Amino acid sequence: MAKVAVLGYGTIGAGVVKVLEGNAEAIEKRAKERIEVKRILDLRDFPDDPHGHMVTHNFDDIAGDEEIDVVVECMGGIEPAYHFVKASLLAGKSVVTSNKELVAKRGAELISIAADKKSNFLFGASVGGGIPIIRPILACLSADVLYSIKGILNGTTNFMLSAMEERGWTFERALKKAQDLGYAERNPEADVEGFDACRKIAILTSLALEHQVDFEDVETEGISSITTEDIRYALKLHRTIRLLAISIMKDGKNYAMVSPFMIDETSPLASVRDVFNAILVHGNMSDDIMFYGKGAGSLPTASAVCADVVDCVRSKGHHKEIPWNPQKAELSDNGGFARKFFVRLENEVTEEEISQAFGQVDYVDLEDEDLVEKAFVTGIMTEKDFKAAVAKTGRLINRIRLD
Ligand code: HSE
Prior knowledge:
The chain is 36% helix and 27% strand. The protein is α/β, with parallel strands linked by helices. The chain has 3 domains: 2-129 and 298-321, Rossmann fold; 134-293, Dihydrodipicolinate Reductase, domain 2 (2-Layer Sandwich); 337-402, ACT-like. Chain A, domain 2 (Alpha-Beta Plaits), CATH 3.30.70.1150. The strands form 4 sheets. Strands 7, 9, 10, 11, 12, 13, 16, 17, 18 and 20 form a 10-stranded mixed β-sheet that branches. The longest helix has 18 residues, at 100-117. The model has no long low-confidence stretch (mean pLDDT 97). Residues 129, 154-156, 183-185, 191, 196, 295-296 line the site of L-homoserine.
């Protein structure tokens, strides 16, 4: 019998308990022994919950309990999660987490403690919720050189953009619903401003490069500037707006970015709606591979967490190597990247000024007399030249990258 402690009894923690109990028999067969939750750490009491008697407010009840083999961290944030995870590993336990902030910041260090202790630190649920993406990158694609990873990595913003486009919801209404459904982070700014997707692409890029990529180095822009007008323009252009996290590894250089993009309706990423995530990986041998599934929510994420718990139980006493060197991989400046841009300028800017700054552009008109402005798509230009063109005309309403 393997015993588990769960840190944090919120959306994911409660889901983990549900999955371990609901699928106990199937899990026992695969783990080759019964897995049971023994303790739950939370600040709150849960007197009406059937697991209320397992709740402790004292982490020492877990760290000092030799019967507990695996600690599952679902608290989120860096502290006190880091302190508890490190102490659990130092006490010889394996740790499983869904906490992308912790993994992005401290992953390399925690893996190396687990290696010293011949235990495991697994984090399959930290990227893509229920989608298996970490293990495929580490194991199934280990014979490939990865050239790019491009993904919709945040369920909340994808849900919001889909609802704004398909149901005409306002930004605020869509965010409220995503929070009610348990998709959003405690502070939804992490979703909306792209920080959550940024941490996830930093983790994937660290694994692809086998070196630390600091999420602070990833140029990041969220969806808070996206309006219903932008979405109407996108539809007119046969495109859809999605928050993409992109990592490109080319000619010894590494580029990464999180930003809203207008993507063509024929792109495989355009059909990713609602809380679904998708990650398109391009390897030099395997070419394009797409991973697709629910990127947030209690049970899909808990399923990925529990798969790691099974792995830890099966590999008791044996450390599964995860190559992640703490030495930093440098990211290159994105200024040289070239693409088209969708631009909205105040009507005062003349067409002559626009062509002087941006070169030849294609205008797009929503035929709405209340919307007096100039909107267009540029030709392919570098990020650097684009910024210079915008500085030249001024009067920018919004701009969105095209992919
Ligand atoms: N807030 C995150 C999202 C949860 O919406 O994708 C899963 O990491």
